[in-house]
Automatic annotation (TrEMBL):
This is Olfactory receptor. It comes from Aquila chrysaetos chrysaetos. Belongs to the G-protein coupled receptor 1 family. It is found in: Cell membrane; Membrane. One of its GO terms (biological process) is adenylate cyclase-activating G protein-coupled receptor signaling pathway. It is a multi-pass membrane protein.
């Protein structure tokens, strides 16, 4: 990772320059991050220790929680720390590492959500073939493919950023390192690289979103022949996943399905998918799922 320019560090503008607002945000995001860690760890522990939660849906959910913890950890601790300091800096290597990790875990989450939609589609549309179609071996391969897909995507994004020459200025108008803010600082024509970034990130986000929409459209069509009780149960199960998909994919498509231009709303939108959504995931999946809540109660009673 050789830096062929005179920039050794970047200065982040952060989320806000107002000290009063920064103190409020510090307390708020500290609570958010603690909720992310505790909530997702609780889901992982509950699923791994409960004999009831052994279906593929909970297998995927446990890995989604691991990714949520990892993804938020890439940006949240640095964001929280920078809210209290005057000069917000990050080294060139640290910036590239943050970019790589952010895209790695973010893209892995996109693929996992798509896999979970496939799981629900098979479970509802072909219940008799579900156990043979989505078995443990298939689940393992799907999760592995999600991690590999996220890694390949992240490597491409990182290579596009590393080759950029930075001559100055070195101020990033963001609270973390991402490709679009770095493209603005490069002292060369970045049009082709910007198109490549949009094609790589945007196509993945949009194509997975289309797959998700089609999967749930198939589910809705198949529910027409079910009884009202079966229909409500299936819809109740899918609503949590649909909510998470909308909350995560909406901001991602807004940020990455466009050329390397920045808007004033980018920071708040980025906060939503890097901090808020990972915090809401455990709440959405636990508050709307009786099986998970009952398993948590049993785990708590056993530990007490």
């Amino acid at each position: 990772m050789e830096n062929k320019n005179n920039v050794t560090e970047f200065i982040l503008h952060g989320l806000t320059q107002d000290k009063t607002v920064a103190k409020v945000c510090f307390s708020l995001f500290l609570v958010f991050y603690a909720t992310i860690i505790v909530g997702n760890l609780l889901i992982v522990i509950t699923i791994k220790t409960s004999e009831q939660l052994n279906s593929p849906m909970y297998f995927f959910l446990s890995y989604l929680s691991v990714v949520d913890i990892s993804y938020s950890t890439v940006t949240a601790p640095k964001l929280i720390y920078d809210l209290l300091v005057e000069k917000k800096t990050i080294s060139f290597v640290g910036c590239i590492a943050q970019l790589f990790a952010g895209h790695f875990f973010g893209c892995t989450e996109i693929f996992l959500l798509t896999v979970m939609a496939y799981d629900r589609c098979v479970a509802i549309c072909k219940p008799l073939h579900y156990t043979s179609t989505v078995n443990k071996h298939v689940c393992g391969w799907l999760v592995a493919a999600s991690w590999v897909g996220g890694f390949v995507h992240s490597v491409v994004q990182t290579l596009l950023a590393i080759q950029l020459p930075f001559c100055g200025p070195n101020e990033i108008d963001h609270y973390f390192c991402d490709v679009h803010p770095l493209l603005k600082l490069a002292c060369t024509d970045t049009y082709i690289i910007g198109v490549s970034v949009a094609a790589n990130s945007g196509v993945i986000s949009l194509s997975c979103f289309v797959v998700l929409v089609v999967s749930y459209a198939v589910i809705l069509v198949s529910l027409r022949t079910r009884s009202s009780e079966g229909r409500l149960k299936a819809l109740y199960t899918c609503t949590s996943h649909i909510t998470v998909v909308v909350l995560f994919f909406g901001p991602c498509i807004f940020i990455y399905m466009r050329p390397s231009t920045t808007f004033s709303a980018d920071k708040m939108v980025s906060v939503f998918y890097t901090v808020v959504t990972p915090m809401l995931n455990p709440l959405i999946y636990t508050l709307r799922n009786e099986e998970v809540k009952n398993a948590m109660k049993k785990l708590w009673s056993r530990k007490v």
